Each structure stands twice: as C-alpha cells, then as structure tokens.
Amino acid sequence: MLELRLVQGSLLKKVMDSIKDLVNDANFDCSATGFSLQAMDSSHVALVALLLRSEGFEHYRCDRNISMGMNLGNMAKMLKCAGNDDIITIKADDGSDTVTFMFESPTQDKIADFEMKLMDIDSEHLGIPEAEYHAIVRMPSAEFARICKDLSSIGDTVVISVTKEGVKFSTRGDIGTANIVCRQNTTVDKPEEATVIEMNEPVSLTFALRYMNSFTKASPLSSTVTISLSSELPVVVEYKIAEMGYIRFYLAPKIEEEEDESKP
Amino acid sequence: MLELRLVQGSLLKKVMDSIKDLVNDANFDCSATGFSLQAMDSSHVALVALLLRSEGFEHYRCDRNISMGMNLGNMAKMLKCAGNDDIITIKADDGSDTVTFMFESPTQDKIADFEMKLMDIDSEHLGIPEAEYHAIVRMPSAEFARICKDLSSIGDTVVISVTKEGVKFSTRGDIGTANIVCRQNTTVDKPEEATVIEMNEPVSLTFALRYMNSFTKASPLSSTVTISLSSELPVVVEYKIAEMGYIRFYLAPKIEEEEDESKP
Amino acid sequence: MLELRLVQGSLLKKVMDSIKDLVNDANFDCSATGFSLQAMDSSHVALVALLLRSEGFEHYRCDRNISMGMNLGNMAKMLKCAGNDDIITIKADDGSDTVTFMFESPTQDKIADFEMKLMDIDSEHLGIPEAEYHAIVRMPSAEFARICKDLSSIGDTVVISVTKEGVKFSTRGDIGTANIVCRQNTTVDKPEEATVIEMNEPVSLTFALRYMNSFTKASPLSSTVTISLSSELPVVVEYKIAEMGYIRFYLAPKIEEEEDESKP
C-alpha cells in the first residue's frame, strides 16, 4: 500500500505544471527513499528527473517499490483542482490499477478525492553518473527565465558562454543579434539574488531555446536555478524543491551550429 | 413613463454579465413593485428569474406596467460602458420603441446616454409555485463556482448528494472520477463563509455541469449561493442581490443517468 | 557617431508600443536638437510625429544628422527585452548599416546589446505649420481612451463636438446610439484630472474610431491628452513625454458623414 501525505500540496501542482508540456506519459517510481520520475520528452531530446524525498512528506508509507504509469496531462488536470493551501495525499492499493489524489482544505471543511486510471508504460531507467562540469552557474530563476524568453523573440538557439567574469547568452535571427551578459555578483541583499559562477575552464555551448523555455516553467518551484555546463555532457538545469529534492532537466548541446557559421 | 435610478450601477452590470450568455433576448417587466425578468435559456432547458424590487432604487417611477424586449448581448455591451462607480438610470417614454441607459460618473463630470432599440418578443410568463424542498444548501458562492469548474475538467455531469453531514459533488469522465465533499460548517468567522444544510430527507440528483457553470457567473452578485433540491422539482440556484432582490436559475435534473449505469 | 543614453528607458518602450501597430517602417531622424520621427500609418491616413529632445537624454552625442530606417515591429521586439528600470543606449557608428540598443540593469549586473539591421526607407518630411485651432480640449488620457473604447462597441465613427460647457463624443451603430459628455472641470484635486476647454468657436467633427483607438495606445506616456480641433485641419491628438518632447497623431476628419445623415 502507498500513502504519501504532502502538507504543502502546491509543490506538487507546480511540479506538474513544469513538466506536463514536456512529457506526455511517465512512470512515477515510489520506494522507501522517495517519490521520483525519470522521463524523456516526447521528441526524445530532453530528459527530466524529479525527486521528492520521503522526509519531505508529513506521512510517507510505501510498503514495496512500485512504478505507476500516468498521463501527466490528466494528472495535472486533477491536481489543478486542489486549492493552493490544500494538503495532498497520493494513495494506491497494492495491485490496483488506479491512483487516488486526495485534497484536504486547511480547515478540513472540504475534502476531495480524484481517482485516475494507471497506464502501462515501457521505460528504461537511465543511470546518470555524477560528473565533473567545466562550469556551474547559479542565478535567480526569474532572471534565467526572462533571458530565455527575450532571446526567443530574436532567434531559435542560445549560445551560453561562461568566463570568470560572467555568463553570456547570445542568439541571432533574421532581425538581428542579441547578447546578454550577467556578471558574477555575490554582494546582494538576498542570497537568492546572487549570480555565482564556479568555473574550471571556459565553456561555450549552443542549445535549442524551445527546450530552455520549457525548462523555465519550473521557475515557481525555486528562486534560483543552477546550470551545469561541460563540453562533453548534456547541460543540467536544476531547480531545487525546498528541502525535499529537485527537478533536473538534461539537454544535449547542438554541435552543427559552428560549422554552419564557417560556411561562406 | 419609466425612470429607474440605481445608485449602485455596478449591480446591473453584474446582472447582465451573469445572464447574457444564457439568454439571448428577453422581456424586462416593469411594474410598481419592481423590475423583473423571466426567461428560458436559448436551448429551453434552464429558466432564469430576476427581481430588482422598487425599494432598492434611489428613484423609481413606473406609471404603468410595461414589458420591454431587449437583446441581452447588446444591453450588456452598453452597460459595459458604464463605470463601476457610475449611477445608472433606465428611461423609457410611453409608447417609445427605445430605452435609454444613462450613466453618471460620481463627480457628475461625465454623463453618457446610450439609446437602444426595443424588440417584440413572444414570451409566456410561467407561474413558479413556492415549493417544499428535500434539502437546502447554503454555501460560499466562490466555493460552489470553483467546484463546478473543477468537476468540468473531469466530466460533463455532476451528482449532488445531500446528507446531514454534508453535500457531495461527484462526476466521472474518461480520465477518472472525482468526489468533493463539503461539510456542514457554521462555526466560521464570517457568516458568508458558512456551509449550512437544511435537510428533510437525503437527496441525490444529477445535473449538466455546463448549466451549473453558466449559473455561477452570477457569483460576483453575492458571497453566498443557495441550492434548493427536491427529487420532483428543478433545482433552484439562487443568488441574492443586496437588499433588492435575487437572481434564480432553475434546472431540471437528468434522469437517464442511473439507467445508463445499470447497463452491463 | 551616435550615442544616446536614456536613463528612463521605459519611455522608449512605451513610445514603441504606442506606434508599432500604426506604422510598419519609418526613419528615425537624429540631429543635435533631438531624436525624432515622422511617419504616415500604413494606410496613409494618419500621421505620427515623435520628438525626444536632446536635453532629455543623460548623454546625447550626434556628430552629424542621420536618418535611420527601422522596422518598428522588430525594434519593439528588441525593446521589449529591456527591463522597465533599465537604462537604454542607442548606438550607431558612422556609415554603419546597423543600430545597437544597449540595456543596462540598474545594478549593472546585467548588460544586453541588441543589434538590428537598418533599412532604406523613402520618405518625405512634411512641414506641419503651427496653426490656430477652433477648440483645444485637455483631459485625462485614461478617460479619453475609455471613451474611444466604449464607443467602438457601438459604432465605427465618433463625432467630437465642443461647446463652452464641455466636449461631447457621439456614435451610432446597428444596436443604437451613444453620447458621452465630459464637462469642463478645473476644480479637481490633481491637475492631471482636469478637463479644460479652450474654445474660439464651436466645432463638431467626425473621425474613424479605429484610428482614435490606435492613438490611445500612447496613454501610458502621459496622464493627460490634448485634442486640438479645427474644421479646416486634421485633428491633433497629443501626448506629452515628460520634459522631453511629445508624440502627436494627426487625422483628417471624415466629411461624408453629414451628407449620409441628410438622406431620407
């Protein structure tokens, strides 16, 4: 039997809003350690990894490891019906082909339960090794979202270049070019407003803005975002989920870009 | 001659917004007692009854009973042009085929008059007898609106079931099922936040969510809604209009529903 | 070389938002006195004239008069990427076929430069003589915008009539007629809330509401609007730009209107 009670139910609503447009169907994996998901986006280009550790739940009971296949669009529809202050409980009986989401209002006057059919989804779990990155940028998540949105009005791809002084986001399109530089800046009033750059060596990589924009839908989950870059690895865009875990997006850099520019 | 002056003009704007999508054309009936309307929705399934008593107007002159046929969409367009703090006066000369809406800004610096053609509309006035209901639920109008909206994302119909403990709203659709229970609750800080259930006998009735959602457009008129249920009568969804009257929506329960479910 | 630094960059964003739907391509003219634009709308009915005087810029360097042809839609796209508190610098090298917009965040942590291709645009500069007007109305810009929007829901044209007592805006359409009168009113708490009428002789002119509505997009630039009317001249709808200049819209009155109404 599975019973996970999350007092801050709005977290789960935000998680669904951040991945439902990227991934259609996915298995949620439940074990003693936590509630997790790993899935490729529908065009098999980006990877999403979610972890909500068991300690973050007010009540966490998971008798045996189970994997529950869900349509994320439908799950998001149901979670949208939870109030922002509601307590959300996820329940499933052993062997059942349904999952129940229960929403309790803070005053306990209103109690809703939504039951959803589970699906069989083939999926292979990729091992993602811990890796060394050439550069790690931590910056306000709203700033990163704004930059990705702004550059999308000019071009389709973004070149992210990191030096000791700062991180530069560049694009070019039919109407012109754009460069946005964010300087390292740690002398801010609030730590979440800092832009912090850890760099082992300079790096410059190109990504599709469409995916970056999709990732930034997770911005409501965290005031900061961490971007880990390496020329040999997919970029990791990570949003921490308050004391519970994280949502991470992986995206391989584009490599054709520079060849295109070298043409006459 | 007719001249009705309503200081709180925004009330009339809200009334129009709550019925203009349900009813296309209707007769407004004016008599010494008040300004009223009774109309079927365009698919002849739901009935709307509006009453604004003469005492609620700052000035109310109606020399003889008249019935003015109006296109509610056009009337709503004109009333949209009134400011929220404007005083609205409805004027019509005897035998005239037009009605004039006058809007005065609170400072009297801006005065607008909008003149609209009247229409001839055939309509029969239904007598609605006072009736005994099996159960009467009073609850916050915003809560009822939220529940109808939430359930619409899952199914097309709602089963409303009342017991002494509370009222349950249920639906089912392709993606699953949903049940929302609101408990009787009278120990609240503000009386308009209470959920109060008067029950003579338990009742469980099925309604089309499309209409319920349409009725909830009247929520800005009142912080509470009263739902009167009886297995032999249409449900009445009533919004009081501050010390002036009410808007009531009548809708017959669906009866096929249970037969459908008894099929294999 | 050209380098214009505007601390209140949001002004430029608002200017673009107010004209980008009216004019597609236009030459910006730069001289020692200021940054200006004069352009007909795409259907050659209305004229826009913009002036930002050099004194309004924190730094203003313009070595020689130049005219820069820009696509206003693209320019607006780029300026949309500037934050509302950003300092905007417009830069162009002599003989260059590009212009650069630089956006600096108030804390200098984020610096963006957007480079846009210039265009060759044929345009003749019309001399607009200072003229005497029959009547000049100054009123709150939000009020004027509201009136134009409201009347558009009833008809296509507005008759603006000025007498000593006030200014009347009228329209008629299929669903009826509308008249809105704003009285002269100078005893207000804030000077920008006044409606002030200077009248040499009464005037009554008809204009296309589509254009008036388009002009009111400049409302965020100024809390008041000045409407100068004369039966022999195009109307001038002027929004002052805080201590820097103005944006003026010119539109010829419609003359067929009255003949139409005299028909049986």
TrEMBL record, chains A, B, C:
<dbReference type="InterPro" id="IPR022648">
    <property type="entry name" value="Pr_cel_nuc_antig_N"/>
</dbReference>
<keyword id="KW-0238">DNA-binding</keyword>
<dbReference type="GO" id="GO:0003677">
    <property type="term" value="F:DNA binding"/>
</dbReference>
<keyword id="KW-0235">DNA replication</keyword>
<dbReference type="Pfam" id="PF00705">
    <property type="entry name" value="PCNA_N"/>
</dbReference>
<dbReference type="Pfam" id="PF02747">
    <property type="entry name" value="PCNA_C"/>
</dbReference>
<dbReference type="GO" id="GO:0043626">
    <property type="term" value="C:PCNA complex"/>
</dbReference>
<dbReference type="InterPro" id="IPR022649">
    <property type="entry name" value="Pr_cel_nuc_antig_C"/>
</dbReference>
<keyword id="KW-0539">Nucleus</keyword>
<protein>
    <recommendedName>
        <fullName>DNA sliding clamp PCNA</fullName>
    </recommendedName>
</protein>
<dbReference type="InterPro" id="IPR022659">
    <property type="entry name" value="Pr_cel_nuc_antig_CS"/>
</dbReference>
<dbReference type="GO" id="GO:0019985">
    <property type="term" value="P:translesion synthesis"/>
</dbReference>
<dbReference type="GO" id="GO:0006298">
    <property type="term" value="P:mismatch repair"/>
</dbReference>
<dbReference type="GO" id="GO:0006272">
    <property type="term" value="P:leading strand elongation"/>
</dbReference>
<dbReference type="InterPro" id="IPR046938">
    <property type="entry name" value="DNA_clamp_sf"/>
</dbReference>
<dbReference type="GO" id="GO:0030337">
    <property type="term" value="F:DNA polymerase processivity factor activity"/>
</dbReference>
<comment type="function">
    <text>This protein is an auxiliary protein of DNA polymerase delta and is involved in the control of eukaryotic DNA replication by increasing the polymerase's processivity during elongation of the leading strand.</text>
</comment>
<comment type="similarity">
    <text>Belongs to the PCNA family.</text>
</comment>
<dbReference type="GO" id="GO:0006275">
    <property type="term" value="P:regulation of DNA replication"/>
</dbReference>
<dbReference type="InterPro" id="IPR000730">
    <property type="entry name" value="Pr_cel_nuc_antig"/>
</dbReference>
